[in-house]
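Severity: low
Component: inverse-folding endpoint
Summary: output formatting inconsistent between runs
Steps to reproduce: submit the following structure tokens with default settings.
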């Protein structure tokens, strides 16, 4: 199965991914050699780099690492192809405009029979590639469309949570449905089940780490992920723990809303 990673920060930070770590997860001895992508949000828009090739020895990985863009919100995906060819169109994270901002989505799991399911109507959004993940994203945007088009501002967390929770429940009925979604303001992580080391499909599907980074000068290093900034709060979400720190397994069906590293109550405006 694919792997997901996200970062939510109180202040903009540079996320540096070591080539050794990417080689382990996205090629070389790793299984996830069918593509990778990463999105760095900047206000309503996002810098997105995707490649339908292994991250191992990728010059684009070196470019991302060396330029170290500052961002409060990062979403990344490393692909192991199950549905759809090894092409750019099938490489995540996927992105679309809605309500004057970029929305980003990355999924880990398998959703058989999503295409004919009447709960996943596409309306004005259409997949570019062939994956079940992109079809799910287009269906999600179709559910969110009225909320963003007519609100005149960012909808409340309560309204967004309601739609995402219903969508996540529908996805879980089809198969493993771990996903990361962002509208540039909120990072939403949904945990389900994934293939574990012993071959079982079981929770946890995602893990989360909350941390306070050291003050000026010192870098916080997490097994190949370096957050370079002054003292601040950072939350990391990943398919598997990336260090020996106290990562918390998310429960099956747990939906976490984050804004600038703070967990947002669904009732907040």
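Observed output (run 2 of 3):
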């Amino acid at each position: 199965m694919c792997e997901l990673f996200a970062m939510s920060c109180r202040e903009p930070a540079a996320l540096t991914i070591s080539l050794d770590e990417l080689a382990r997860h996205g090629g070389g001895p790793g299984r996830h050699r069918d593509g990778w992508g990463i999105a760095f949000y900047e206000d309503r828009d996002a810098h997105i780099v995707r490649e339908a090739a292994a991250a191992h020895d990728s010059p684009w990985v070196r470019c991302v690492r060396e330029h170290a863009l500052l961002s409060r919100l990062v979403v990344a995906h490393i692909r192991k192809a199950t549905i759809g060819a090894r092409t750019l169109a099938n490489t995540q994270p996927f992105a679309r405009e809605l309500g004057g901002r970029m929305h980003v989505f990355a999924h880990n799991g398998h959703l058989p029979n999503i295409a004919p399911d009447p709960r996943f109507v596409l309306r004005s959004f259409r997949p570019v590639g062939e994956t079940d993940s992109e079809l799910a994203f287009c269906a999600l945007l179709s559910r969110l469309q009225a909320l963003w088009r007519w609100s005149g501002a960012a909808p409340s967390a309560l309204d967004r949570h309601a739609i995402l929770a219903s969508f996540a429940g529908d996805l879980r009925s089809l198969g493993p449905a771990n996903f990361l979604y962002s509208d540039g303001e909120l990072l939403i992580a949904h945990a389900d089940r994934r293939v574990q080391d012993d071959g079982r499909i079981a929770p946890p599907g995602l893990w989360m780490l909350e941390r306070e980074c050291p003050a000026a000068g010192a870098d916080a290093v997490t097994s190949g992920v370096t957050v370079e900034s002054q003292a601040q709060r950072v939350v990391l979400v990943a398919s598997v723990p990336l260090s020996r720190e106290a990562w918390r397994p998310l429960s099956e069906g747990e939906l976490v809303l984050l804004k600038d590293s703070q967990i947002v109550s669904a009732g907040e405006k």
